[in-house]
Design goal:
heterodimer, A: 138 residues, mainly alpha, 78% helix, elongated, B: 206 residues, 8 helices, globular
């Protein structure tokens, strides 16, 4: 167990709010500032905070290497996959009109799916980079 | 009032820039760069670009500070030799600076509603985005929908950059010394929190 008491208690108190704020930024991003990119960075910041305070072992229980690494291509896959789906549904690549019964809802769903893709890639990349730095430093 | 806040923030930005140039300890430089990012985020908020401010605060001040401190942990934190003053680089920087100021002079006035950039596609987005996508935050609608190709490219850039840095930091070494992935859960001699100033910096940057 490393880090001092204040740091550990503060991390435990802050962590739920960091994750909640990330989810808010992600899923409320259509009405308020934010989106997948910012939310991904905030989630990564939460994991990095855990890693700094409680060490790599604890952080890797929350976000294991294998998962984090696979998140990097998965997000791009979701984003590009949305484009391919709309392409094969009869519209242009990344034209979300055909994803639902009427075009307006299609655009809404398309934006949400694509933002989730961005979130996954960004969070995966940031956490992986931090893990790589820590591992290299030991 | 807004003008006063802007002037104060921009003055602070200039001061921090000078401090970054004068600072020789690289940890100090990273912390100052983090402060610079926070000031920049404040400027963005004053300009009503809240999305950009959020990005600047989380990426510029948060993650990049942590990653730069991580990079410093792998190297040394003090500059070894102070580069000697040479006349050529100074003249080059001055020339570029003068060219930038000269170019900025012919830009439309700051905040001019009739500037070309506000008359091209922006009125269409402002008028139609809410009708076509039902997404009230027009920035999100533009980024994820109208400019979906750009954002896909941007995500691919993050993907490529992440894979590249991971290969540099990890892949080459693993090939050299055999596979050491499974050992990553070993004894906790975690680098970054071992010295005080670095951890302080990370906490402060959040």
């Amino acid at each position: 167990m490393n880090g001092d008491l204040i740091q550990r208690v503060a991390t435990k108190l802050l962590l739920p709010f960091i994750v909640l704020f990330a989810l808010y930024v992600q899923f409320h991003g259509e009405t308020s500032p934010g989106g997948g990119f910012q939310a991904g960075v905030i989630i990564a910041a939460g994991v990095i905070l855990v890693s700094i305070t409680f060490g790599q072992t604890t952080a890797k229980k929350i976000a294991p290497w294998g998962l984090v690494e696979r998140m990097i291509p998965l997000g791009v896959f979701i984003f590009a996959g949305t484009g391919v789906v709309s392409f094969f549904s009869g519209a242009n690549f990344l034209d979300y009109s055909v994803l639902a019964h009427d075009p307006v809802h299609g655009h809404e769903y398309g934006i949400i799916i694509v933002e989730i893709g961005v979130l996954i890639t960004v969070a995966g990349t940031m956490i992986s980079l931090f893990y790589a730095f820590v591992e290299r430093g030991r | 009032m807004e003008a006063i806040i802007n002037m104060a923030l921009l003055t602070l930005l200039a001061l921090v820039t000078v401090a970054i140039i004068a600072q020789r300890s690289l940890i100090g430089v990273v912390i100052l760069a983090s402060i610079y990012s926070f000031l920049m985020a404040s400027v963005m908020i004053v300009l009503d670009a809240v999305d950009v401010a959020l990005t600047e605060a989380s990426v510029g001040a948060g993650i990049s500070t942590v990653l730069l401190l991580g990079a410093l942990h792998l190297t040394k934190t003090r500059e070894i030799s102070v580069p000697q003053t040479k006349i050529g680089p100074i003249l080059l920087s001055l020339a570029v600076g003068v060219a930038l100021v000269w170019g900025a002079l012919v830009l439309p006035p700051f905040g001019d509603p009739n500037a070309p950039i506000h008359l091209h596609v922006a009125p269409y987005y402002l008028r139609e985005a809410i009708i076509e996508t039902h997404v009230p935050n027009i920035v999100t609608a533009i980024l994820a929908d109208y400019r979906g190709f750009d954002t896909l490219g941007e995500t691919t850039v993050i993907f490529t950059a992440g894979i590249g840095v991971l290969l540099l930091l990890r892949g080459l070494r693993r090939r050299g010394t055999g596979s050491e992935r499974p050992e990553s859960d070993g004894p906790e001699s975690d680098g970054p929190e071992s010295d005080g100033p670095e951890s302080d910096g990370k906490e402060g940057s959040r």
